[in-house]
Amino acid sequence: MTNADSEQFLDDSSQIITVRPNCETATLQKLPYFVGISGSTAGSKGISMNLVVIPAGGSAEPHFHRNYETAIYLVKGRVETRYGKGLQQSVINEAGDFLFIPAGVPHQPHNLSDTEAAHEIVSRNDPNEQENVVLYNPNIE
Question: What global pTM score does this model have?
Answer without folding.
Answer: 0.83
